[in-house]
Write a structure and sequence with these properties.
By secondary structure, the chain is of the alpha/beta class. About 40% of the residues lie in helices and about 25% in strands. It is built from 19 helices and 23 strands. Belongs to the peptidase S41A family.
Length: about 525
């Protein structure tokens, strides 16, 4: 793998996540009917009409319009985007925080739907479906074979809430066929991945995005940790590309003292809106740490900025993405929508953390590569800041605007960039697929293991490591992993734990050796 190939992969995936995650006003609305009197608007309409009526060949004018809308938005800023009709359902479900289905995580494994695990307390679990089961059909619709598409599987398993879907299931571990009826229910798409008390007494909450349910999930998690008498709180916003603005503000209500400013927004007409913390928060005192990295954007940066500017806690990690624009979702009437930048936001000290985008979308999206080349991911003194954009926190500490939140405690990525490539690989779906395959060879054996026996077995089994390398080669992926074998095995153990013992034990294993967690202690 070439030296600079991995930053490009990270940069592209980060940009896509942040463009879609964004920083949204949660209230979508339809624009009022407008009479187009402007000649340029009429020109566009006439052009499409002429193409439909007069052009010599058949043309998909919908495709032309979609490209036109996207091109127009690209001229505005990097975060005003078009969402096509066929993408809206998935985007809406992600931000609404739920969908209606049976509640299983699955792979399409060797031409059949294989259950990895059930959603806890979900309809599938209650109906008796267990990890390793193959779902062969749903209401008579065949779900195995090479011709089955992902859409076919989704359409068969999802449906109206409280409707019954009759499944034919093959249970491999018992070599038996079953018929199981499952009542479809609303399945939460969690934005809070995990909350737990760590061994040192600190509470830990990991948030992956800001959906319409994030504040509710966060408050419940926080109250649970407070009952466990935590000695401090860590909020992990690493790789969180953002989402709804109101959810971040509500979260800050729980953390920041009453009447302290948490964010300001200014729209096109110069109207300033100031949001301040309310009085009913449950954790307005006590140690607070916020973990961030170069993938933390938008609403994540509002949390970090408010905590830092109000001297409420400590920001730990690396400089954040640098997104200080607010989008509103506007429906276009045909099932598609745009997210249009309608305001800029400012941290309590008055700083805009939006990084420049005047050099074009490509340069903007490849900022990660620039940071990598400058060395700022490895050393705090390489962070590029504008001395002219100095601001002060409530206690008078100097902070900077113009491009992300610079942490109070800097934690570098691994000095050998190969470690980071390996970590990216080990967090990919390939690893979970491989581990499922290994467990599926003898599920009864693995189900009988305690966590300690599983860890010992996995760490000492040399065949697992060699089989993993063979598995990568079969997928035309060739990594030099032997120098990083310990790192690879650490993540393989984590995924075995994840699939057999759940997310809390998975995070507990990985966090025990996490550099940012170590920096907090």
């Amino acid at each position: 793998m070439k030296k600079f190939f991995w930053p490009i992969i990270v940069s592209i995936s980060l940009s896509l996540g942040i463009l879609l995650g964004g920083f949204l006003m949660s209230a979508s609305y339809r624009t009022k009917n407008t009479v187009f009197t402007n000649h340029n608007k009429l020109k566009l309409n006439r052009l499409i009409d002429f193409i439909e009526q007069e052009y010599v060949d058949e043309v998909d004018t919908d495709s032309i319009v979609n490209k036109t809308v996207s091109t127009i938005l690209e001229q505005l800023d990097p975060h005003s985007i078009y969402i096509a009709k066929d993408e809206m359902q998935a985007v809406s479900e992600s931000m609404q925080g739920s969908f209606v289905g049976i509640g299983v995580n699955y792979y399409f494994y060797q031409d059949s739907v294989a259950v990895i695990r059930d959603i806890e307390n979900g309809p599938a679990e209650k109906a008796g479906i267990i990890p390793g089961d193959r779902i062969l059909s749903a209401d008579g619709v065949q779900l195995y074979g090479k011709g089955i598409s992902t859409d076919s599987i989704v359409n068969a398993l999802r449906g109206e809430e409280n409707t019954i879907v009759n499944l034919q299931v093959y249970r491999k571990k018992e070599d038996t066929a079953l018929e199981i009826a499952v009542i479809r229910k609303a399945i939460p798409l969690k934005s809070v991945d995990i909350s737990m008390k760590l061994d040192d007494g600190l509470g830990y909450i990991k948030i992956n995005r800001f959906s319409s349910q994030t504040y509710t999930e966060f408050r419940e998690a926080l109250k649970k940790l407070i009952r466990q008498e935590i000695e401090g709180l860590i909020i992990d916003l690493r790789d969180n590309g953002g989402g709804y603005m109101d959810q971040a503000i509500k979260m800050l209500d729980e953390l920041v003292p009453k009447d302290q400013t948490v964010v300001k927004t200014i729209n096109k007409r110069g109207k300033e809106t100031i949001s301040k913390a309310g009085s009913n928060g449950v954790y307005k005192e006590g140690k607070l740490y916020v973990l961030v990295n170069e993938n933390s954007a938008s609403a994540s940066e509002i949390i970090a900025g408010a905590v830092q500017d109000n001297d409420r806690g400590t920001i730990v990690g690396r400089r954040t993405f640098g997104k200080g624009l607010v989008q509103r979702e506007l429906l276009l009437g045909d099932g598609s929508a745009i997210r249009l930048t309608t305001a800029r936001y400012y941290t309590p000290s008055g700083r805009s953390i939006q990084k420049p985008y005047s050099n074009g979308l490509e340069v903007y999206n490849h900022d990660f590569i620039s940071r990598y080349e400058r060395g700022e991911l490895y050393a705090a003194d390489s962070i590029k800041i504008a001395d002219s954009l100095q601001f002060k926190t409530r206690s008078g500490r100097v902070v900077y605007g113009g491009g992300g939140i610079v942490p109070d405690i800097f934690v570098p990525i691994a000095k050998n960039h190969g470690d980071d490539v390996t970590i990216m690989l080990m967090k990919s779906g390939l690893v979970s697929y491989f581990v499922f395959q290994e467990i599926d060879k003898d599920r009864n054996k693995f189900d009988a293991m305690t966590k300690e026996k599983l860890i010992n077995f996995t760490q000492k089994n040399k065949v697992i490591y060699s089989d993993f390398k063979k598995y990568l080669a079969q997928n035309n992926l060739y990594f030099k992993l032997d120098k990083r074998k310990d790192l690879v095995m650490n993540y393989l153990v984590a995924e075995f734990i994840n699939q057999l013992f759940g997310e809390e034990e998975y995070y507990r294993w990985l966090l025990s050796d996490d550099p940012m967690i170590q920096a907090v202690k």
